[in-house]
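Bug: token stream looks shifted between consecutive jobs. Job 1:
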Amino acid sequence: MSTWIAFQIAGDEGEPIVFLHGIGGDAESWRLQLDSFSGEFRAIAWDMPGYGDTAPLETMTFPSLVDAVSALFDRLSIERAHLVGHSLGGMIAQAFALARPDRLRSLTLVATSSAFGKRNNGKPDKSWQDSFIEQRLGPLDRGASMAELAPMLVQDLVGDEPDPNVIKQAVAAMAAVPEAGYRDAIRCLATFDLAQSVAGIDVPTLLIAGEKDPVVPPRVMRHMAEALSNARLEVVTGSGHLVHLERPEFFNSVLSDFLRSLVIH
């Protein structure tokens, strides 16, 4: 792994907690969490390859993204960490948990699933998959820019009564995503399927779902929680897909309680 991973870090005491963003964000999308957790933890958020200041991978795959996370751990001399992943970041976190369980203290999966566009019966929902990809790549194929696409996508992701500042922040973050990185991420996302493997994750796991999430509804995350041997699910009332941005105080409180229950002082 030769890719240099850009990151933000807050705090230099306590156990490391590493945040992995979703398709529409970057390290800065975890700013509220970096600030909140820096007092007790060494809080780190990466720029995924192809995003922010991190160069793209030659080919973005989940194994190559797992290697990128490992490279970040090595660079920061992290033996084991609490790993938090949102959406696509949650998929990367699951793949990492299966490939490198010895490097995890815990896993937190936010607004994510164990497979792209599958029903609870395990069969692909092709119409949903095709609609998702068309909604996100179709406008770019027809000449739209990321800045033009961002407001529509963000508005479709949030839940009840979102803070206008959250909308503004999320739109700005998505507008700043390099188009090539975004396309790579969508193509990679479409290959994700750990539905038959996710039960092999046995580190302590917290799942956080948004009650009004149109992409990963709570029933999907509940199904995943039931497949895990050491997991619990929290559903955030009124929140959409951008849980950590829409309801940061509640999100941070739930995550903090979970981590404190694991950390040995």
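Job 2, same session, no restart:
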Amino acid sequence: MARRAQLIGGLAFIAAAVIAPFLPDWVVSLATIAFANALVVLGLIVLWRAGLVSFGQALYYCIGAYVVALIGRWIGFGDAIVLVLLGGISAGLVSFLIGFLIARYREIFFAMLSLALSMILYGVLVKTESLGSTDGFSVLTPTFLGYTPHGEALNLTLYWFTLAICALSALGVGAYFRSIAGALAAAVRDNEIRVEFLGVSVARVIHAKVVIAGVLGGLGGALAALAIGHVDPNMAYWTTSGSFVFVAILAGAGSVAAAFVGSLLFEAIRSLAVDVVPEFWQMILGSALLVTILFVPEGLGSLVFRLRRKKAKPS
């Protein structure tokens, strides 16, 4: 079953890469940002499987974005591969340090503490003029192992690069879910005391999940910074974290692929709503969330499992 899912996911990524040159530039840009944000959502799913909800993933998203922008601004280095890796590593180091504190909390305390840490970063960035204050600053045009594309070529190259990072991340998270550490998520969510009696440290398990989510958030922020070409403190604001949680609810925690499908659907609905009815786009997004909660409470990923159950039932 896992190999079949990997094959389908791989074919989907290949198809997404092949059709890109035939799509309008704005669609490619939208998909690039959607896939970048999907990495943050994937990190939320890692936490969600253990019963944890973070309202502060924008912290790592913003760190990854600002690392990319600052390296280009201060050093003039613009290789996208190195910059994205540095963005993910930097966010991972921060999440590792924060994990010693946040791994001790659960439920609403975990959510609110993560939100508070994100808002602290937002406040620091707003008050720091050398980092652009509320306006932020632009990102250096990226290169790819010496190749410097421009215009439509840059748009496509960033899209393919983002797809590659997403595919590798999806494979890694999928392998983690199938490992013993990943399988412990359900046990931690249901009964932490029993897990401790098995000789497993729940704090360490949660700490590892916080770090994984942080790295994914940093990678997503780094890719988004390259795609948008600009960074600002709003990347750490609570509404940014809220949009990631929105997509996580839309996608559900049952499937890795659902994070990418949900993110694409969210960006498509938001863009269409802003273009068609700009005065009511928030209402449309809220209605989409309400419909999801009422009719698909476990997210889009649960639809696949529903179909499998129906096929498994005897006629």
